[in-house]
Amino acid sequence: MGTSSEIETSTLEHPALLHADMEAFLSYLIPFVLAGTENGEPVFVAVGANYLAALREAVGAEAPGVTWADTREWHPNSSTRLRAFHEYVTERLADGATRIRLVGEPVWHEGRPDLIREWTRYESVLNAVLAPFPVSLVCTYDTSRLDPAIVANARRTHPVVSDGEEAPSPDFLDPAELLRTWNPEPPPPPAWAPSLDRPAELSTARLFLREEAMRAGVTFERATDMAMAANEILTNALRYGGGAVALWGWPEDGRFLCQIQDDGPGIADPLAGYVPPAQAMDAGRGLWLARQLVDLLQVVPNSTGTTVRLHVDR
Fold first, then answer.
1. Geometric angle at alpha carbon 266, from 247 and 87, rounded to 5°
2. How far apart are CA 159 and CA 15, in angstroms?
3. Single pTM value for the model
């Protein structure tokens, strides 16, 4: 393994590649991947199927040290994608790598502004989670098909942008600032949503959510995941917020939602739940686990406490 000084003096590189066609995509990434193979650096590429096939053909499907993945099949959930990249990096460093190259294309869910917002938050969080490591991570944006707002946000979540030429982004925001400001409060639960007041008994809350989710068509496995994620949030509320005020669970637009409200002081760190457990403070570990179990988790401080909303697809 490389010496600690080699790793400590290395820094995260995290450019956004804004490309309008295959030629621009390949002209940037072929040299990037080949430089990794020539230097003996592990390379992981997760992009759309067409781009994946073209890049593999250009550099060789059996290029040494390169792992290939279709972005819509490899951890299409932003929370598990973040965990998977972190695990890949730490495992390769443990194996002796001194620098690692990553290429990632986010999964933009059309018609789901909440998931688009969460993937934008993920792109920002990468700057904090991977900051300690010697990583070069290129995030790709196909400007020919993406909403211009998504492309504009790439300039807020990446310190460097390449759109024909590479330059620092004047719009870049510190991850904590972006997460703190880009966090709208969700609409209230519908009046008819089943609920529990002051759910202090965790087993009762888990049973309530599992039964409501399954009644709404969620599989037993995903209903159990939802219940366990809620258990972590309720435990945090009991430990840090004086307990939850209420818990709701209801179906909506092909999903099952759970909302937990407490009247505690809230979570000061906007990165809580994104940072892996080994680096997280105590309050962030339960949130991190909950994020791994559901399709979307939103944590929104407000004037009366904290709102946490969990989503699973039906």
1. 90
2. 6
3. 0.91
Identify whether the C-beta of residue 294 lies closer than 8 Å to the C-beta of residue 221.
no
Instruction: Break the chain into its structural domains and give their ranges.
Output: 4-181, 195-313
Residues pairing with 168 in the sheet: 160
d(Cα 226, Cα 218) in Å, to the nearest integer?
10
- Would you identify the CATH topology of the domain 4-181? Rossmann fold (3.40.50)
CATH T-level topology, domain 195-313 = Heat Shock Protein 90 (3.30.565)
Both tokens of 106, joined, read 């986010």
- Chain centroid offset of residue 252 CA: 23
Given strand 166-168, what is the order of strands in its sheet?
66-70, 43-47, 100-104, 135-142, 15-19, 160-162, 166-168
Instruction: Give the C-alpha separation, 295 to 142, whole Å.
Output: 24
For 88-117, write each residue's pLDDT tens digit. Answer: 999 999 999 999 999 999 999 988 999 999
| Token couple for 187 | 């609409």
Of the candidates 32, 293, 9, 252, which has an alpha carbon nearest to the alpha carbon of residue 132? 9
**Which two tokens mark 86?**
């972190």
Region of 198 (left: φ > 0; alpha: ψ -120 to 50; beta: rest) is left
Around Cβ 79, how many Cβ atoms within 10 Å?
Answer: 22
